[in-house]
Design brief:
Number of strands: 15
Radius of gyration: 21 Å
Number of helices: 16
Bound molecules: ligand GBH
Structural class: alpha/beta
Largest sheet: 8 strands, parallel, barrel
Strand order of the largest sheet: 2-3-4-5-6-8-11-12
Helix content: 25-40%
Distance between the termini: 38 Å
Shape: globular
Length: 486
């Protein structure tokens, strides 16, 4: 049915799942209610309001803690097959460890999961979407390897509590982003400025924690619960600035340092960090007079433990960038170790977010690259979406979803990439981290001037409803010509 006529519909494979995604800190609010402990986002927005646009906080956000029944109704209205949400660690374990288990926190997610199932929506749970309990940050946070044990304890409690009903688990959302909390100020908590050191240490712990929880699930729970467990990684597609060997090598380094850093240890056949990364960081560290590489080393046992520790790849993708060979960023830093510079073409269509340009062809190319690089890996798109200023008539978002979902269809049906599900970010407008409430990603509008935080469907809700329920998208040709200069 992929003819050339008008109104051609492109049908997704039988069983393909459509849904939407949110994260606890961005929607729940109730930051100090019912025994919830403080987490690093609570801490940062209160200690450093100047880090956040308009001094916004997630204290109330969308108040989904109280409005979850209404939210689930909206998801049902959209025809969602599943809902990807995250659990707030400190809502369940206020101190981060098992010394105190907050029953009211456990009840909240129990009710949410039951409400979803009642409406025929599958719950898909992210264990960690950036909100570490502050008590664990006080031990140093992710650079401290003891967090592998704490994360395992927390994950076990979640699996014991909800694993009878939750069949898709994501350990971590976008470690590329949250480990920047140990490499940069005013972007992510804990806002520790140790580039090229703190981010590498944090990632080392996160990969081991992920693998620990994967194996725990695999051996102790999968036999009875029969679910899947994975990790969500994010990347732009990266286009080389030209077809020169230098730019193509810069493109590869950009992908390896931003994505291979996490994906190569888990999804490649050989495991461990990408070779280009190990070599470059070791060489730079030596030149800096350091006795060992700033990139930590896995033992052979750890390489084997991490390799293959995922049932599928969760992918968050929004936009495309262009790479050239060169130096950028502080010295030392991962940016500098990478030796490639990124930019975006000013002619690409824009959104309300400076970093988000519309380039659906990049989505198709990225899916193909992943398929090849990681040996036909099974992919779930765990986030994809567009920001504006909150218009109800959100033509920009409709165009984005139409074109990106077409690119997805082409990758699956023409190119043979293995993708089994797609989640739109986001179900409703929410706290967009340091950008506050100014950049809106919702399919449902939230009125923050109204104490009821009224939800209203945007035009894109109608579009997604038809895609989600018919499992078809109206054909839009993905352009194969595009400019790539910065
Ligand atoms: C995702 O991150 C998150 O998972 C989600 O929580 C978030 O709301 C959503 O996307 C929309 O942003 O301008 O240099 O500061 C997306 C990946 C990459 C987006 C880094 C913001 C900031 C670059 N993010 N980017 S910069």
């Amino acid at each position: 049915d992929d003819g050339d006529g008008e109104n051609v519909k492109r049908t997704f494979p039988a069983g393909f799942m459509f849904g939407t995604a949110t994260a606890a800190y961005q929607v729940e609010g109730a930051w100090n209610e019912d025994g919830k402990g403080e987490n690093i986002w609570d801490h940062m927005v209160h200690e450093h309001p100047e880090y956040i646009r308009d001094n916004a906080t997630g204290d109330i956000a969308d108040d989904s803690y109280h409005k979850y029944e209404e939210d689930v109704r909206l998801l049902a209205e959209l025809g969602s097959d599943f809902y990807r949400f995250s659990i707030s660690w400190a809502r369940i374990l206020p101190k981060g460890d098992l010394s105190q288990i907050n029953q009211l926190g456990l009840n909240y997610y129990d009710n949410l999961i039951n409400e979803l199932l009642d409406k025929g929506i599958e719950p898909l749970v992210t264990m960690y979407h950036w909100d570490l309990p502050q008590a664990l940050q006080e031990l140093g946070g992710w650079p401290n390897p003891i967090l592998v044990d704490y994360f395992e304890d927390y994950a076990r409690l979640l699996i014991e509590s909800y694993g009878d009903r939750v069949k898709h688990w994501i350990t971590f959302n976008e470690p590329l982003e949250f480990t920047m909390g140990y490499a940069k100020e005013a972007y992510m908590p804990p806002s520790i400025n140790k580039p090229g050191v703190g981010d590498y240490l944090a990632t080392h712990t996160v990969l081991l924690a992920h693998a620990r929880v994967y194996h725990m699930y695999d051996t102790e729970y999968r036999p009875t619960q029969q679910g899947n467990i994975s990790i969500t990684l994010n990347t732009d597609w990266v286009e080389p600035a030209s077809d020169s060997p230098e730019d193509i090598a810069a493109q590869d380094r950009m992908l390896q340092f931003n994505f291979g850093w996490f994906a190569h240890p888990i999804f490649s056949e050989e495991g461990d960090y990408p070779q280009v990364m190990r070599e470059r960081v070791a060489a730079n560290s030596e030149a800096e007079g350091l006795p060992r590489s700033r990139l930590p080393t896995f033992t052979p046992e750890e390489v084997a433990f991490i390799r293959g520790s995922s049932d599928f790849l969760g992918l968050n993708h929004y936009t495309t960038s262009i790479a050239t060979s060169g130096e950028e960023g502080p010295n030392p830093s991962r940016d500098r170790d990478r030796g490639s510079v990124g930019c975006q073409d000013p002619t690409w269509p824009t959104s309300a977010s400076s970093w988000l340009k519309v380039a659906p062809w990049g989505f198709r190319k990225l899916l193909n690259w992943l398929h090849k690089e990681y040996n036909g890996v099974t992919i779930m798109v765990t986030e994809n979406g567009f920001s504006d200023s909150g218009e109800l008539n959100d033509a920009g978002r409709e165009n984005y979803y139409k074109t990106y979902i077409n690119a997805l269809w082409e990758a699956i049906m023409i190119d043979g990439v293995n993708v089994f599900a797609y989640a739109a970010w986001s179900a409703l407008d929410n706290f967009e981290w340091t950008r506050g409430y100014a950049e809106r990603f919702g399919i449902y509008h939230v009125n923050y001037d109204d104490p009821n935080l009224t939800r209203t469907p945007k035009s894109s809700a109608q579009l997604l409803k038809s895609i989600f329920t018919e499992k078809m998208v109206e054909k839009v040709e993905t352009p194969s010509e595009y400019s790539r200069s910065c």
